Queue: 2 jobs
Job 1
Amino acid sequence: MPQPNEGKTTSATISRDISAADLEVAMSAQRDPGLLRQLVELSRSAFGFYASHFPYTINYPWVSERIGELPEGSHVLDIGAGVSPVPLFLARRGIVVDCVDNSKHIRALPATANWNEWGFFDYSALHPNLSSHHCDITEFAPSAKFDAIYSIASLAHMPRRIREKTLSFCREWLHAKGLLLLAIDVIPSTDFIWNRSEGVEVEPPIQHGTIDDVANQLERLGFRIDECRVMRSVYKSRTDLLFIVCGGEGSGYTTRQLN
């Protein structure tokens, strides 16, 4: 159902909007093309564009499908929200979302032609179920525990010590049976976590860590890893993609799938 603050955004032409040709490629690979189409329409309506970075045609639907199945009133955390349709998609399903991002780029509507998916945006301007926090995730103080936490392409941009601290907080902030979803960029044809942020190296790959380093920490924290899958050779992507789904209790690291 349309919300009071929706549709009052922008008519700007955003250069970062995904092309028709790339969107056609993405649609042909979708298990549920309707979900991606909905996310594209929602993003263009709210911000004037859907990010042209092709992996977002994969990881936005991946998170939206899983978190969107939670019951109305569920409380969710988005780590490194940026400018994304996912929080709004969830809010319109009755889910309450806290969005945390410490970006130096402040985005305020109406959008301008140089917008992209990077930046801090105050989602409360779009829906009453959304709130935004402009701070480092390690400085965030939630008011209650979450039913789910997700992060889309943000953990790789953190130094390893911050990433590990963040995952420790995730264990603390989640309900015992809460859901954790992580979409993480990986250096192509390796198991090293992507180590660049806005073109700058965060730290050397050996220091930044590997897929196993992330999985092993999650197990030590007591998460049950239900899925740990790597997608290789992604169309028009500089990175491979890692998808991790964690339950709240117990151990059980599944065999990694290489696609």
Note: DSSP finds seven helices and twelve strands in the chain.
Job 2
Amino acid sequence: MRDLELYIRARYPIIYLLSFEEERAIKEIRSICQGMGKSLWIWSMTEGLKMGGAISNRDHLEVLEAISKAEGGILCVLKDYHYFISEPKVTRRLRDLVSELKRSRKSLIILSPVQKVPQELEKDIVIVDHDLPGEEELSAMLEEIEGDIKRRGDIAFELLGRERELLVEVAKGLTLGEFENAISKAIAIYGALDGRAVEVVSKEKKQAVRKSGILEFYEAKEGISDIGGLSELKDWLRKRAKVFSPKARVWGLPEPKGILLVGVPGCGKSLTAKAISSLWKLPLLRLDFGTIFSGIVGSSEENMRRAIKTAEALAPVILWIDEIEKGTSGFGSSNWSDAGTAARVFGTFVTWLQERKEGHPVFVVATSNDVSQLPPELLRKGRFDEIFFVDLPSYEERKEIFRIHLAKRRRNPDHFDIDLLAMESEGFSGAEIEQAIISGLYEAFDEGKPLSTDHIIANIRATVPLSRMMEEEIMSLRKWAEKRARPASGRWWAKTGRV
């Protein structure tokens, strides 16, 4: 809101305030008006124009005429005006108003959760994001609720110091209204406000993220021990397990940006993203680029901004983008439809990767199977902390993978010939090894016998691995990664000519 006040003082004629929290935004705008000695007018399509105590039922064009004729210092807020702003008459009248507002002490604020700016007005409108409430505002809301509960005296308030801090921390990413609703739900369930509210608020936050339709919470059950091989990558991650702590800031460590995992499909890239969440004990958000785009012009850019804002509000957090090449291929040019929407969305994303805010740590884990589809802007230094190449598992890594998957299916790995299985599965990815074990389980179940080494080997020999079907593509990928990426396994894969 400091930016908003600055724009008003600088006499910017039209300000577009993006917010889902009308009540909170109006409260803050009213405070700005009082500090500047201006009158606050508020218009909506349902209630008309409110000027102090007076109410005038004007339509969306007449309110602009009222602003033009008004005298003195006025700040007029138009709610949900995005529905009308693209009408030719409205666009023209707003352009006419620009010069009038610049010469006066009047300002116009369009308050809406949806960004919709006609091309004719792009140079006359400044866009301001109304950030989600921070810890101070959430703490203030909790104090108000505490005071109300104690005045009523019919509900126990039993939040201890650490529980209180944790409740506020968990609520980051919610609007004040969503936070208040979640607390009300906790009181309705337990008849008191205590430490159990933390779980209720956490579930409400997941629901709020889910409602956005852009990001989704992912419950990471996999740990770093579920990954076979990738010793270099694991070591890199372990050394950064405490990077988001205050101690790391005092030490002088910058907040890490993220990693890009490229390599052969089925070799543990997505599994690694989930394991980082468990290792670092941070929430995992999944971003699907397919949900960013929609049929409404301008909404795709807004979707990307909302995704970034939500992730930053929930920070520290892991943001997982799986198979990023499917969402970014072609972004670097504007030859797509929708007047270069794809290029603008991509530009917003990579700019954020490079210049994200300090104090809002979002660690991005992006995976890719096809680097040829990645735009060069994404691979430039500074976007990610490191680019790792995930190759097919070596002999020793395959042994480790067999042990992991046999143990996951309640089989003792010592009862199997792990050395033979690793030899027979040369060129297999981790996912193909897992599938060979599952197919062997089906065979053993059908025969009514315990799973044996022979069952697994039979399925290995019946499988044509991806490394044979796509040998040329894999060799090309290795050649690309030889000088551009860091090996995740710590072995010099590039020197071997065979798959």
Note: DSSP finds 22 helices and 16 strands in the chain.
